[in-house]
């Protein structure tokens, strides 16, 4: 019993480390895209101070990736429901590529107006869920992640940690929830696949 519990703890730690590293890497890539497009702006006094600079963005995103990636398989197990679309590493990698593509589009493509842009990204985000998840649990959790992350982002902008150029949804861009939604689906799929991998590894022992 103790050995089994110890194995679960080690498995959880391993998955957490992988999820954290993936979250940090994605945050660096996506943050760089937004800065290049001048979507996000950091005040001079914030950039000049190490304690208030944007160094905290990747670690926070890494921690969020751990929470989301561990939460998805836990909720699946608790509800006894698993995605009808078989999660495999090839699908996870494609999901990750589409997620980066959505963020690349949000930073590079010029649309006639923000409403058209937001609706396009919303359709792409739902399409991401349909292609790589298709579960009600995944959709609901992605909505919750999107809502909470948007609220936190608005609070950070309100406090002056950074700002968005031409905000049209309170303090942020209206397409931000779509990006967080697709991010929730992506990290959820990665977390699910890591959980499946660990379970298969345990059964082989």
UniProtKB/TrEMBL annotation:
Keywords: Cholesterol metabolism, Endoplasmic reticulum, Lipid metabolism, Membrane, Steroid metabolism, Sterol metabolism, Transmembrane, Transmembrane helix
Primary subcellular site in the record, as a coarse category: endoplasmic reticulum
Listed name of the protein: Insulin-induced gene protein
Family, similarity comment: Belongs to the INSIG family.
GO cellular component, one term: SREBP-SCAP-Insig complex
PANTHER family hit by this protein: INSULIN-INDUCED GENE 1, PROTEIN NSG1-RELATED
Keyword Lipid metabolism applies: yes
Subcellular location: Endoplasmic reticulum membrane
Transmembrane segments: 12-35, 55-79, 91-109, 115-132, 139-158, 170-191
GO annotation terms (biological process): cellular response to insulin stimulus; cholesterol biosynthetic process; SREBP signaling pathway; SREBP-SCAP complex retention in endoplasmic reticulum
Pfam families: INSIG
Membrane topology note: Multi-pass membrane protein
């Amino acid at each position: 019993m103790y050995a089994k519990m110890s194995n679960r703890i080690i498995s959880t730690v391993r998955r957490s480390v992988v999820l954290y590293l993936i979250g940090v890497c994605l945050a660096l890539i996506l943050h760089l895209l937004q800065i290049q497009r001048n979507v996000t702006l950091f005040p001079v006094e914030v950039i000049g101070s190490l304690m208030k600079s944007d160094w905290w963005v990747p670690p926070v995103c890494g921690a969020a990736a751990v929470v989301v990636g561990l939460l998805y398989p836990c909720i699946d197990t608790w509800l006894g429901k698993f995605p009808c679309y078989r999660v495999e590493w090839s699908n996870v990698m494609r999901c990750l590529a589409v997620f980066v593509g959505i963020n690349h589009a949000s930073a590079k493509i010029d649309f006639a107006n923000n409403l058209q842009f937001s609706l396009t990204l919303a359709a792409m985000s739902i399409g991401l869920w349909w292609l790589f998840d298709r579960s009600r649990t995944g959709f609901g959790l992605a909505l919750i992640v999107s809502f909470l992350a948007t609220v936190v982002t608005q609070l950070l902008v309100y406090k002056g940690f950074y700002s968005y150029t031409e905000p049209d949804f309170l303090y942020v861009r209206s397409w931000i929830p779509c990006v967080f939604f697709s991010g929730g689906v992506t990290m959820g799929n990665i977390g699910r696949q890591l959980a499946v991998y660990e379970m298969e590894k345990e059964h082989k022992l």
